[in-house]
């Protein structure tokens, strides 16, 4: 009954230098909005974005390093991202899961966000504040482009297309991306479609936050993009009008075999984040209780 190909978006780093150079010349750009999150509050549980001391409070960035992006694509907001322009990876992406019908992985090119850059009319200006194809090319860390908002959790193909932006991407170990993380994505969308309902009209609705914790290494050969040490995911929704949440936490490491990511509580996730220097006060409104 339920078929959704989360494994479809495992990236294989097969492109060669000439393609990489070509992509840099004709690089597609997505025009999102670097505003505060109040314009796209629908992607947060009860319309409230997380509070993280020093990063994000009351939907406002607390430091120029962190940009609040309402991800606009084909004339509508599709999800929201808090982006770290120093480490050139997102802190988290926030999105809703609304349907359980099958969608195909779109044939999308990867997009960059021009509004993160100082405006310039110079031809071929490099992307200074975000990752690009070149950063991921021949990186020698056995990582590929890991979506925070995975295209397979999208409500339709246009939303799926919107996920292919570097502002939604972290360097993720290839075996982890296609292994336990992918199994967790498949498992959670099933859980959400069964248990999560909008209080108003009883349609499928869950609010998801997926994020990455900064590690010590940066992608070679340019040393611009930080490789996460851990990745996490949590969702909150209503189940029979009561708040319902799950949380997951996993190291961004190579793996072998059928590893499963254990569930933790929302409270434990917040504690892990605090230990790892992300000073979360709340991820979900009223801690989703
Ligand atoms: C990848 O990088 C290594 C150096 O780390 C270099 O020797 C090799 O030629 C590069 N491969 C390609 C295809 O550019
Ligand atoms: C990050 O959190 C994990 C899980 O709680 C913990 O094992 C690890 O030591 C933490 N890392 C740091 C740098 O505190
Ligand atoms: C963040 O803090 C503000 C101000 O204290 C509060 O109104 C809002 O509900 C908080 N967000 C969450 C997700 O709880």
Structure write-up:
With 289 residues, the protein is an alpha+beta fold. It has one domain: Extracellular Endonuclease, subunit A (Extracellular Endonuclease, Chain A). The chain is built from six helices and 14 strands. The strands form four sheets. The chain has an eight-stranded antiparallel β-sheet with strand order 1-5-6-7-10-11-12-13. It starts with 16 loop residues before the first helix and ends in a 7-residue tail after the last strand. The structure holds 2-acetamido-2-deoxy-beta-D-glucopyranose (NAG) (3 copies). Residues 17, 138, 140 line the site of one 2-acetamido-2-deoxy-beta-D-glucopyranose (NAG).
Main β-sheet: number of strands, strand sense, barrel status?
Answer: 8 strands, antiparallel
* CATH class category label: Alpha Beta
> What is the strand arrangement across the widest sheet?
1-5-6-7-10-11-12-13
Helix amount:
10-25%
Based on the coordinates given, report the CATH architecture.
Answer: 3-Layer(aba) Sandwich
| Count of helical regions | 6
Shape: globular
Quote the beta fraction. Answer: 25-35%
- Structural class, from helix and strand content? alpha+beta
Measured on Cα atoms, how large is the radius of gyration? 18 Å
Bound molecules: 2-acetamido-2-deoxy-beta-D-glucopyranose
Helices and strands, in N-to-C order? HEEEEEEEHEHEHHEEEEHE
CATH level-4 homologous superfamily: Extracellular Endonuclease, subunit A
What number of structural domains do the residues give? Answer: 1
Overall mean pLDDT stands at: 88
Number of strands: 14
**CATH topology description:** Extracellular Endonuclease, Chain A
Task: Give the N-terminus to C-terminus distance in angstroms.
Answer: 31 Å
Uncertain parts = 8-26
